[in-house]
Specification:
By secondary structure, this protein is mostly beta strands. It has no helices and 14 strands. It has an eight-stranded antiparallel β-barrel with strand order 6-7-8-9-10-11-13-14. The protein has a five-stranded antiparallel β-sheet with strand order 1-2-3-4-5, with no helix packed on it.
Length: 151
Amino acid sequence: MLVRGPWQRVAVGAAVVVGSMVLAASGAGAAGSGGGLAHGPSVGSAAPSAPSHTKSAAGTYELFVGALDLGPLVLNVDHTFQMSVDGETGEWITTGKSLAMSITASPVADIGCTFSATVGGKSLNSAKKPGDYVCPGDAISPWYALKQKPA
């Protein structure tokens, strides 16, 4: 188990528990998961409080993982996302100011990788306080994204 800030990750079969959110892989390796994201209390935690009325995190961001600028990250209002790097897509959820994203389709081996973030007015995390990008069996990488102004 890794604990960092308000996030707690515990692998549960084909799902990853992130704080009070459960990210279930929707790929072929997640038999019986029903696909997509599930939202509910993690094992041993209290049920999440009523949703806060925070502004939506949807929008276009510039994505940074480690020291690399990976280009645009688009969070859609239907809670899907696209990254220009490798054409990866996935789903995202929020509770309060916490956000979790899970890659569900990738031409490379990134299906099941997750991102944790704190939603700010102009960013997801920050360079000084990055979130975690975690892939099964891989190292944890720091990441953040800066919101872009509409064109």
